[in-house]
Design a protein that fits this description.
Number of domains: 1
Number of helices: 3
Shape: rod-shaped
Order of helices and strands: HHH
Largest sheet: none
Structural class: mainly alpha
Length: about 50
């Protein structure tokens, strides 16, 4: 196995892990992108509507 290939694979897995655990996490709050902003608006409206 190539070390570079393993490193890239590790990075991909790490990103996938962060994205999968980002629901309502600190990561979502500190990262700004159209997707996370949309999720944040959804959570805010759910909070006010409940």
């Amino acid at each position: 196995m190539n070390i570079v290939l393993l490193a890239v694979l590790g990075i991909v897995v790490a990103i996938a892990y962060v994205l999968s655990t980002a629901e309502g996490g600190e990561w979502v709050e500190t990262t700004s992108s159209p997707y996370t902003d949309m999720r944040r608006e959804e959570k805010r409206s759910e909070y006010w509507n409940s």
